[in-house]
Specification:
InterPro entries: F-box-like_dom_sf (IPR036047), F-box_dom (IPR001810), Quino_amine_DH_bsu (IPR011044). This is F-box domain-containing protein. Pfam families: F-box-like (PF12937). This protein is mainly beta. It has 2 domains: 48 residues, no CATH class; 298 residues, TolB, C-terminal domain (Neuraminidase, 6 Propeller), CATH 2.120.10. Strands 8, 9, 10, 11 and 12 form a 5-stranded antiparallel beta sheet that branches. Strands 3-2-1-25 form a 4-stranded antiparallel beta sheet, with no helix packed on it. It has a 4-stranded antiparallel beta sheet with strand order 4-5-6-7, with no helix packed on it. Helix 1 packs across helix 3.
């Protein structure tokens, strides 16, 4: 009885370890066999997630081009994981790949630079699934895609990385209109197309999507709009951006209260907006202020590249790029950090947020 009580007290203490320091669990497991047994128990991972609720940003994927500087063009591509914590995937560099999107512990990859062969990868378990090629009557030139847990509306997404998933593919290459296709890992096949809004002139922005409730949001280029795909209803609709704003140099965000947001870089300032419900139930955009980038970044305004902006949903971290470097801005702490992406030119980032409890077998800490 006393031993069981001690285990409960120890578990309660260990559950309070910070989620953004996975190494602390490894260090705890080395104390003794009892501690290792507790943090290795099947229910500990679930309890750890429930305790902290919001998964930390373990790092981000930088989409890089690397090659011979003397060549006329660079033709080597890599999606490189840049850590923000002690977590390191087994394969930090995914060669000839571009990271498109990340939700619920999974990352969506495509063949670089613009191929539509898709793969879903879990960096924590290193499990990779190649998706069947989507049968289209033509080669898509304007498209984007996202990966999400399949249990929308029923899952709290705290520990669902081994559950079925969906990949939503938005194609804007057909003059008859936008088409949405959905891949189900349970069925192992793509759905029939769901028809949406008319095709745009300049196509879809290939930037990470936003997930709010049961809806995925895609940024559309130069049409002052966002495409909404409702996962539960399997319906498509279009939202309009704030008056005078366009989707160039922008990123979709989520606010602290879970609403859809929007941010755009203009010169040296990051402007923030949030969607709210109007008095008659209609959706409206409300300005949420702005951030002067020159002050925290300490760079010349001309060096800020307008279309280099990213956002870590849940962690509320912005990414802003210049010609020479990427910077992260934590909205909660105000911390600004220059990120080291290694060799190559980073032309986009995909933040990766997830809970992580280490595989203790790889450390020789398998409990008895």
């Amino acid at each position: 009885m006393a031993e069981a009580l001690m285990d409960e007290l120890l578990e309660e203490i260990l559950l309070r370890l910070p989620p953004d320091d996975p190494g602390s669990l490894v260090r705890a497991a080395t104390v003794c066999r009892r501690w290792c047994r507790i943090v290795s128990a099947p229910g500990f991972r679930r309890g750890f997630s429930e305790r902290h609720r919001a998964p930390p940003m373990l790092g981000f994927f930088a989409n890089l081009t690397v090659g011979d500087e003397d060549a006329d063009y660079e033709d080597d591509f890599v999606a490189r994981f840049v850590p923000a914590t002690a977590f390191r995937p087994r394969r930090a560099d995914r060669l000839d790949r571009r990271a498109l999107d990340a939700h619920h512990g999974r990352v969506l990859l495509t063949t670089a630079p613009w191929g539509s062969n898709l793969e879903v990868w879990d960096p924590v378990t290193d499990e990779l699934r190649e998706l069947p090629r989507l049968a289209l009557p033509y080669s898509p030139f304007s498209w984007n895609a996202a990966v999400v847990c399949a249990a929308h509306g029923e899952c709290d997404h705290l520990d669902c990385r081994r559950r079925p998933f969906l990949v939503v593919f938005l194609n804007d290459s057909d003059p008859e209109g936008m088409h949405v296709y959905v891949y189900s890992s349970e069925v192992g096949a793509w759905s029939q197309p769901i028809y949406g809004a008319p095709s745009t002139t300049y196509g879809v922005e290939m930037v990470p999507t936003a997930l709010v409730g049961n809806a995925l949001y895609f940024l559309i280029d130069a049409t002052n709009s966002i495409l909404e795909y409702d996962l539960a209803k399997r319906s498509v609709s279009v939202l309009h951006l704030p008056l005078g704003f366009v989707s160039d140099f922008a990123v979709l965000t989520t606010s602290e209260d879970g609403m859809l947001g929007f941010a755009r870089v203009e010169k040296s300032r990051l402007w923030l907006w949030s969607m709210e419900t109007g008095p008659e139930g209609d959706a409206t955009w409300a300005p949420k202020g702005s951030i002067e980038l020159l002050s925290p970044l300490q760079v010349d305004a001309a060096a800020i590249v307008n279309d280099y902006v990213g956002f870590a949903h849940g962690a509320r971290v912005f990414f802003v790029g210049t010609e020479d470097a990427w910077f992260s801005i934590d909205l909660e702490s105000g911390q600004v950090r220059e990120e080291d992406c290694g060799d190559g030119h980073a032309h986009g980032v995909v933040p990766y947020t997830s809970f992580y409890t280490p595989d203790f077998h790889q450390y020789g800490l398998a409990p008895l």
